[in-house]
Amino acid sequence: xxxxxxxxxxxxxxxxxxxxxxxxxxxxxxxxxxxxxxxxxxxxxxxxxxxxxxxxxxxxxxxxxxxxxxxxxxxxxxxxxxxxxxxxxxxxxxxxxxxxxxxxxxxxxxxxxxxxxxxxxxxxxxxxxxxxxxxxxxxxxxxxxxxxxxxxxxxxxxxxxxxxxxxxxxxxxxxxxxxxxxxxxxxxxxxxxxxx
Length: 196
Prior knowledge:
single chain, mainly alpha, Hypothetical protein af1432, Methane Monooxygenase Hydroxylase, Chain G, domain 1, 2 domains, 9 helices, 60% helix
């Protein structure tokens, strides 16, 4: 089995909800590549970081009261050593994993910067909305449709300012508008959310 298949299997066997699972990892990977198309990134580093960036949040690896980005870094370090991953690339992957969250400063490498951008952008627009609503009742912060709506509103307001590259900023504006259009329509069609 090649390394990429092994990474996919790790995510598939982790108990990850679909909002954070393999398809999220693929979207983050491909969007990172799209946003950085003017650069030459290390594809092995980028793919590995994209596949493992949320492992610390998955049921098999999560630890209560431990930030999932830090936990993901520890899990990733162990997994990559077991997989005989190139040792000189491990610190770059770990930096990208540790700094992928919107509340973190971007990591030092281009791979880390674009992974973070793509992960932030996957929380906005139509795909971000789908992810939020799929988590109702499965995430401690999103127990009701109203919680998902409030989180979508917060993301639409805050996340575009967390994106730092030109390509990321352009896409953040578009996805923010998608989110706000959806929320306005939902509000109109549900008597200001009363009928949800």
